Amino acid sequence: MSSRTANLELPRSMMPSRRAQVVALCVLLVALLYFLGPIYWLLVSSTKTNPELIGGSGLLPRGSVLANYRALMAWTQGQFWRWVLNSVLYSAAAGAIGTLLSVSAGYALAKFRLPGRGAVQLAILAGLLLPVSLLTVPLYLLFLNIGLVNTPWAVIIPSCVSPFGVFLGRIYVESSVPEELLEAARLDGAGETRIFLAIVLRLLAPAMVTIFLFIFVATWNNFLLPLMMISSTELKPVTLGLYGMMSYFDPRYGSVLLGSFLGVLPLIALFLGLQRYWQAGLTSGSLK
Question: How many CA atoms lie within 13 A of 227 on its CB side?
């Protein structure tokens, strides 16, 4: 797209009215407050003591953040940042493996005439409707029998399976990977593995980023699975560790909220970091 085309303005008849622009701006501001309000409340509450939280000391920060951090590290015996690192490890591993599996399965379902392909697609759609919590107990019994309970794999392996990721991968392959390109690569002598790794994965970059984000966030927020699978303190994710702090008699709520705020920072950094690549991938995919 040239700079001349980018600088063209819409005709006056197609421009939104002043009233429509004001209404759209107000709606966006309300949405911004709706999404940033809980984060601000979490940040402010993490600076308060229990009496200040219960007494309703307003929406201004206090000076107890250092004391809350010390209490957090003392209660967790210095394990808090290890829990955050465990969550990052579980979520990143599940996201990377699950993304590769999802786009591989989506590519196979979209481009190959496999026997029983329709039944597989129906099973994937059924998996989208099935609550993940229903599978936690059967998964625990399975992993207990194979000796993987209380290991990182007990959290990573179940989190790699994403019916939504397979569904999104198949839809994106059908719309973004032309059959002519694959046939041309086959005529040039490229094998199916080389075609998938060198061509298809590049075209699927926007979908892969989206699938990775969904799996990463789902694994990070998953509470019931690590609760059933993990019993060792060193292997706990941050969600399970903070739950243990809340179940303690007379917890320091400011410390728990501070831990929640610090624990969500990797997610915020991930979204801000990958958003640029996601938008760039969408643009490059549309130009191709």
Answer: 12
